[in-house]
Amino acid sequence: MERLIRTLTTLSPLKILPLLLPISFLIIVGFIWVPELLDNAYIDTFKIGFIGILLEALPFVLAGALLSSLLRVFIPDEMISRWIPRQALPAILFACLLGIIFPVCECGMIPLVRRLIHKGMPVYVAIVFILSGPILNPVVYGATLTAFRNHSELAYARMGLAFAVACIIGLIIYATVKKSPIRLSVQRETDNTHHNNSRGGKLAAVFVHTSDEFFEMGKYLIIGCLLTAGIQTFMVQDSLAAIGDKPLGSYFFMMGLAFVLSLCSTSDAFVASTFVHSFPAGALLAFMVFGPMLDFKNSLMLLSLFKTKFALYLFFLIFSSVFIGAVLMSIWL
Amino acid sequence: MNDSRSIRFHYLLRAVILLAFALYIGHLVQQDALHYYVAPKLARWVQLCPIPLTLMALSLAIQALFGKGSVLCDCEHRLPHSIFKSTALYGLFLFPLLLGFALPDRALGSMAASKKGISFSSLPSETNNAVRFESIDPYHEELTELAKILYAQPTIPVYSAIFSETLGAIDLYKQQFEGKEISVSGFLYRDDSEMPESAFAIGRFLVQCCTADATPFGMLVDSGKLKSLPTDTWIEVRGKLQVVQYKGQEMMQIRAEAITPIAQPTTPYIYTSADSITAWKALQITANPTK
User: Fold this and answer.
1) Span B24-51, average pLDDT
2) How distant is the Cα of B130 from the closest Cα of chain A, in angstroms?
């Protein structure tokens, strides 16, 4: 026990943050909802939600981790940096189009991008890819069009706004951030080639790295799923909808909802379409652009990759530009 | 930096966890329980996950058991150092497995429906349908086509495969469908605050991707003098359609003539159909093979 306390006190607050979150959540749940928790329906709903999101994200996380370790083992560093244009503007456009080739959901994005940055991708290009990849791809476009069969202009607006927001944030970061914002612990990863002499050759090395990535990202994914399932189980959606009555309140409400629900970008359009009666089109647009760019699970992942200050700066940029963009777009919708 | 013995230990533990995840997915597939959590189009991908998971587990196990000590190194991805952090990390990964294996697989019920708010109509209410069976855009066209077919039926059957489309078509042409016979099955949902004892809703969960985006979808039922059943019972309702005012909006309601409890269907959720007309025709062929 003494040892445990000593370990706890020596840890820096940031390191135990990922652990404190679920613990504090469980404590809150424990105190407020103990009587309700004894009711089996809550446990069932929680389990269905939790396992559902986890299983949904699993193929994407595995694909991202596998792709990232394939890149690490087989693609030499120079190759990636040769592909990326030197000038800022063409590089940003290139990153926007990358999502069409790699239709990876946001959960698979972070391990892939981490590897790409190591291979020499500039940070602002990586950010543009993180932001645009989950939205600007054919799968999401198709899903949005199906969900809004009566309002196809919303699907075009979603693609357009995501493109604009990603480009603008890319330019801002290109202009303002000069020092590397990557966390020191991530930077320290040296690219020495000892993996070549591990047992089972290159293929085994790929899978060992895949599992390293999987455990690295998996903890944020599971914490995110726990929080999301908890919110879905205990939050009554109608009770919050009252905020939506004020003109700009609906934007804040929908963006907050997108953040806490942490839906996959291929399915969030269907959820948005159920709000078509109660909210203006601009708020739905904000929901569909903000959610894939920033939500519970991927903000934890971003915090693990970037320095806290830069990550918060990035969150602020995403929030403000999606909000302004959606309000402006609502004039045409 | 961890020494090579503790790295071996971590690798073995991780191999076991990965294998357990692969087994859990295999178990869900074998029990035919995967559809309780994800939609069929995504289930295909989830079913493939055990392959990379097993390969990862095998590679880790080989490294742990036969890898040379000098090769094992955690300089790239730091492994947790203290016992406390290791326990927290692996505990986190074991939690979903524990939850998955310990609790039975069940479908979402009316508790979740009351949190999400059940929806009774799939279309914006501003569309005006005074004109008989005329449509404005492709999706409306499809529903109009379906509405024409449904209107010709003596009793409208609501098939699971085109559940949301059928209710959507009826909702689009409320006036025309008033008085028609219908037969629906779903779970019984009661919104205790708003409805009297005899009135409830019959619903299904519409799942697009996974249970996180499940939206309850249903129709109002007026059971009249029929004996009431407990919430969450799976029932089949037969009765006549009528237009009523509910929370200030026009809604379709079934005046029930018969309510029969049924067993929960093997696929409790409903999914959207890409082409409801083709789906309807296919269902007709399977329903009446002699024709």
Assistant:
1) 86
2) 19
For chain B, what are the domain ranges? 4-102, 110-287
- B92–A54 CB contact, under 8 Å: no
Q: SS3 for chain A, per residue?
A: CHHHHHHHHHCCHHHHHHHHHHHHHHHHHHHHHHHHHCCHHHHHHHHHHHHHHHHHHHHHHHHHHHHHHHHHHHCCHHHHHHHCCCCHHHHHHHHHHHHHHCCCCHHHHHHHHHHHHHCCCCHHHHHHHHHHCCCCCHHHHHHHHHHCCCCHHHHHHHHHHHHHHHHHHHHHHHHHCCCCCECHHHHCCCCCCHHHHCCCHHHHHHHHHHHHHHHHHHHHHHHHHHHHHHHHHHCCHHHHHHHHHCCCHHHHHHHHHHHHHCCCCCCHHHHHHCCCCCCCHHHHHHHHHHHHHCCHHHHHHHHHHECHHHHHHHHHHHHHHHHHHHHHHCCCC
**Using the beta-carbon criterion (under 8 Å), do B212 and A66 form an inter-chain contact?**
no
Question: Chain A to chain B, count of Cβ pairs less than 8 Å apart?
Answer: 200
Closest CB to A48 among B59, B211, B213: B211
- Nearest residue in B to A207, CA atom: B56
Q: If you average pLDDT over residues A232-246, what whole number do you get? A: 64
pLDDT mean over B265-280: 80
Distance from CA of A166 to the nearest CA of B (A): 26
Instruction: Quickly name the fold that domain B110-287 has.
Output: OB fold (Dihydrolipoamide Acetyltransferase, E2P) (2.40.50)
